[in-house]
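Handout, section B. The chain below has 307 residues.
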Amino acid sequence: MHHLLGEDMRHLKDFEFIEGVIRAGSIRKASEDMNITASALNRRINRFEDEFGYEIFERLPRGVRLNPAGELLLHHIRSQRSDFARLKSQVSDLSGVRRGHVSIACSQALLPYFLPRQIARYRSGHSGVTFSVNARDRVAAERELSEFASDIALVFEPLTMVDFEVVHAMAQPIHAVMRAEHPLADQPEIRLRDALRFPHVAPSEKLAVRVLLETAARRLTSVEVAPMIESESFDFMRHYGAWEDMISFQFPVGLDMDHQPNLVSRPLAVRDVAPGNLLLGQLRGRTLPVASARFMRDLVSALRALP
């Protein structure tokens, strides 16, 4: 283990150069990005491959790409970097100084209300911990976990589940958001057929809410999702109802109707539209850094406390 760590520390700069070439797609472009001559960068890569014992790049007419050995090396680099970050956070805990960094890939529904509240609550007791929070769709979130670009994902129903370890799951019915004076606003639950007969704004087709709406509409006769406006932004759709009398659709975890007193939200009937599953997870088999593991536990408690 010490020998392996020493080898990795010795090659830290090589790893930086390798990742730079991967990002750029060619040695020439990477050399410009990293302010080194192309010939010097090429020599550095060749020397590393000689020491490693295997070529890691496939040379192409217009650049380079990782070969299978390079893919394994890249995973090792990212894994070792994650292990080193966890070691540093454990040492800072020993000294009583709570530091660390938590990176989160999440569905945009979590951005306006849920995550700001949880992060602020966590940082009130761990002010040395920093965060990065990035809106990602389901596919991008899982890819970031596998690349160690994010520690935690909080998304609706990832399309692929190979590398995604679910830590907590909860159902979220879709809500219809409308003006308080809308004809459907006094109903405690809204049938999908009724909602779609009124002008509506809907998410773009790659988002989970739209997928669930379309799946439900196909089961009904003489009804379809036919939005006047489509958007990838739930913030936009939620606020649009203040300007024109249209229904929008959203998961309730992304709503806080106290902030928009002129609007109301009502659940769509579950017998019409299946709920979405909000999944909190991480890369399968990865041991998270201390700060990320603690924040994950806090998120589980907060999700369990949601109505």
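Note. The CA atoms of residues 118 and 299 lie 7 Å apart. Compare this with the example in section A.
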